[in-house]
Design brief:
The structure is a homodimer of 349-residue chains.
Chain A lengths: L4 E3 L3 H12 L4 E6 H6 L11 E5 L8 H13 L7 E6 L1 H13 L5 E6 L2 H7 L4 E6 L2 E8 L4 E4 L9 H18 L1 H8 L8 H21 L14 H13 L6 H20 L3 H15 L9 H9 L9 E8 L2 E8 L1 H15 L2
Parallel strand pairs in A: 1-8, 2-3, 2-4, 4-5, 5-8
Antiparallel strand pairs in A: 6-7, 9-10
Helix pairs in contact in A: 3-4, 4-5, 5-6, 6-7, 6-8, 6-10, 9-10, 9-12, 10-11, 10-13
């Protein structure tokens, strides 16, 4: 199934055409506190929409928030012919997509990602869901948005770490695609951000992702490539949650890409230059996730509980080189520990 | 999408072939207290399955139970390659199907309906879900079971009202199909139940249903025919829930079929003989749902909140005659009230 993705900096007009074309009997918009204040006023087409507001941040992507959203959808008399517009980052689009796809067994939703991470990660590909019991995206569904409207007009006001978070997923796509794409992204200068360049890089990045997703919408095979960096990255995120903290998803992915590049180097002899160039870029722009060898067993246990695991085995996508990936690599504990040792060494922790 | 339905009285062997063929890393079985005690021991192929037990009854088909099932699935280290067998009536298959289709964004499930209603209503057609906020099946998803195994071996130990409950859905299918099928079911004798006859009637009934579902799996059009009796029936069920009671689903459908047959007679001139024959059969076997004219506004409000409603309008499937249905009939309040008056009159309340 092809996802309808619209690239447009005239978000209001584009969104309005979908709203008018859909002949909906009610339009709701899901925002977080930030997008309510900063983004919603920029979209006059939503001035009559019923507003559902949630608290920002991944730790609110939970069952309690979901239950409240379902309740509010009911309170505004939403029917199967109503529309939910998800206006926000990954928390809003993941939770809102799941809320819409399960409300009365499914109503239309449109995603308007307001963060780079939202655009590149959560808004395209049909994955929706919430965290549950301390595990990331443990409950959810595959559900396609009616449309996704991608723009860069909301990014300049974002904190820089939000941009970096999204950029990590773009790095992943580039690594899956070609050495040239990878090198191009490593040149990106976060001190002097070029938003026009970023838009073109984003468009290219989403084309790589869509090409993979369309071949395998429910993640039976090749789509697992998109899990590059995520087996370890999710374990870092889950560890942070267990410790009562939270880290930005893209930061966890960036660190996960480094650890999994170490694994690629150990197991598949991927070039060490690429590993060191990546590690330097990540260290400079993302810092490092602090771990000691005392955390290895906890991290390994979290990796075993990952959705990608089979029979409790740890499963990673790895690279022979940029653009040449293999899915379903089973990783043993010793290799994970060795990779975490090297990660700590090259990241200087 | 064609649902894989197996008609077999050798349930253990049939189920076992799916379990062995699926190469699952964990098999879980969802039961209620009754099926745990009475049915599970009849299926040796599940002797090593992880058992998840819930309390019986539609009022346990709620978010709290669902949350516990998700948690228990996690506790037995279920992965995307695990299987959930739903062994029970509609509560188990509806809730279990939704739990499985949302756990890690979806794992395989097999439905083994143990009640006639489960076989005829909930186990075929891909509708899963839970009640929420006092509304029936308000949260859910369309998700196809890997297989549905239909048999009559579990029915003789059921209370007779469970059989009657399922039989009401068969009545509905017959009314949608032909006058001959309708007349045949009205001859059925609940005093001396012929289980062989029932199996053949059930098979025929499910063929009618599957034929409709396959043409329209997500209920955009013709599948709405299957809502016959349900607009009013659900309102009766929801009213009972609001009053802290519960009625068997099929009983509510039987009463709903009578009210909607009155509407068919008023609005589409359907034959009065069919109406009176139906009403007599329902009164004799199901009794009547007690309402007074003081309840009309509440019932109408509940009908407006039904999933089938559009723009707050009340939407029913109606019959010109048996086998000749029309979907999407918008019903005004006066006609509902008139039909409820006649329902009370012919049911003697």
């Amino acid at each position: 199934m092809t996802q309808n993705v619209q690239y447009s900096n005239n978000v209001d007009a584009t969104l309005n055409s979908f709203i008018e074309g859909g002949n909906y009997n009610a339009v709701m918009v899901l925002v977080d506190t930030n997008t309510h204040e900063l983004v919603l006023p920029l979209l006059p087409c939503l001035s009559n929409a019923y507003i559902i507001e949630i608290a920002p941040g991944d730790d609110n992507k939970n069952l309690e928030t979901l239950t409240r959203v379902w309740r509010e959808m009911e309170q505004c008399d939403a029917t199967r012919h109503s529309l939910l517009v998800n206006l926000g980052g990954g928390t809003v689009t993941d939770l809102g997509g799941f809320a819409a796809s399960t409300f009365k067994r499914g109503i239309d939703f449109i995603n308007v990602p307001t963060t780079l991470l939202g655009a590149v990660d959560a808004a395209v590909g049909g994955k929706t869901g919430i965290n549950f019991n301390g595990l990331k995206n443990e409950i959810g569904a595959f559900a396609q948005a009616k449309a996704v409207i991608v723009s860069t007009i909301f990014f300049p006001t974002l904190p820089k770490q939000e941009l970096k978070s999204g950029f990590a997923e773009m790095l992943k796509h580039a690594m899956l695609h070609s050495h040239k794409s990878f090198e191009q992204l490593l040149q990106f200068d976060f001190q002097n951000i070029d938003y026009d360049l970023l838009l073109s890089l984003l468009h290219e990045s989403l084309k790589i992702k869509q090409h993979i997703v369309e071949q395998d919408p429910t993640e039976q095979g090749i789509r697992k490539a998109l899990n590059l960096g995520h087996t370890v990255g999710h374990a870092f995120e889950s560890k942070a949650l267990c410790d009562g903290k939270s880290v930005l998803h893209g930061y966890a992915v960036a660190w996960g890409l480094v650890v999994e590049s170490v694994l690629s180097h150990i197991l598949l002899k991927s070039p060490s230059d690429d590993l060191y160039n990546l590690a330097n870029f990540v260290k400079e722009n993302y810092g490092a996730f602090y771990i000691t060898c005392d955390h290895y067993d906890q991290l390994i246990d979290l990796m075993r509980h990952d959705k990608k695991s089979l029979n409790g085995e740890i499963n990673c996508t790895l690279l022979k080189s940029c653009g040449d990936f293999t899915i379903n690599n089973k990783i043993n504990e010793d290799d994970i520990k060795a990779a975490l040792d090297i990660y700590r060494d090259i990241m200087g922790i």
